[in-house]
Predict the 3D structure of the following.
Amino acid sequence: MRGWSSASIRARLTAWYATVLFLMMAIYASVTFLAVRHEFYEQLEDHPRAAGGELYTEAHVQEQLREVLIVLVLGLPLVVALAAAGGYMLAGRALAPVETSFNQLRRFTADASHELRTPLSVIRGIGEVGLRETRTPAEYKEAIGSMLEEVDRLTSLVDALLRLSHADAGNVVLSTERLDLGQLARDVAASLGVLADERSQRFALDLAAGVSVSADRLVLREAVTNIIDNAIKHSPRGSSIQVDVRTDGSHALLTVTDEGHGVPVEYRDRIFDRFFRIDEGRSRDHGGTGLGLAIAKWAVEANGGRLSVDGGPRGGSAFRIALPVKGDQV
Ligand code: ADP
């Protein structure tokens, strides 16, 4: 991978461009010179006397040819140098998106490796400590349980990575259908109810009837699940999580508002980036992969919508999905 940087691609592109341009210009200059030379000698044979009456000799022709040759020989590298400078600039512009994608890919690979290494190190650590001396069956059981927890974490991480890599490759075929957004929110809240119960949280649903959108049910459900799951994880025990569905005419809006620590304004754009977490330790404690919101954002946008975050009225956060109603684009 070393040397496969945008700068070296840019330099290589420019070098190739300058070389090809130089060869083409050299051929063009040679052919031009031969044609001019041929023309001059023909004129010498046909009209040896110039208009002023002065005798037009071979020495004159050679003098003129020398001047033409000097212009061509000096002009050629100058033109190629100017064209190469222009080419270098244009290559820089053309490669800017490539460089951005390349840097994103490099960061993503580094982050993914780091994320995968953490549970692997924990599993190794538990195994090594367990093997150091003979333990009671209960202790072995506990060690195996901890290992399985880390395996679960690895599995969800790999699943999320696969999900995103399919999305990036454009391999996810959406099967769009007309669906009731309120009903979808109700279903997701019901399936996550057990997690909310564990934390003594309660859902407050305010779902307008008949808000229908055209979307892939499973993909959209994944987005809603990730957002409500986050609301459960990132807000205190005993708090309330509000889920609203309404329409503002052209948009169907699904909003999840919690009473947690909220998302500070400076993080509201970055929160949807892969592996971005405001508090890494807390996210890990909740078993988070740092990919939930990146997947949710993709899932909403794949259905033609937009996902955003704002502050909630009681200090928590309010995540909003806006989807076009009746096929309008947001
Ligand atoms: P994670 O698996 O860590 O939850 P996500 O991509 O789902 O990853 O979320 C990224 C980060 O955004 C979280 O680590 C957390 O810092 C922040 N976050 C997400 N949802 C909420 C929320 N409801 N309240 C506060 N912070 C949140």
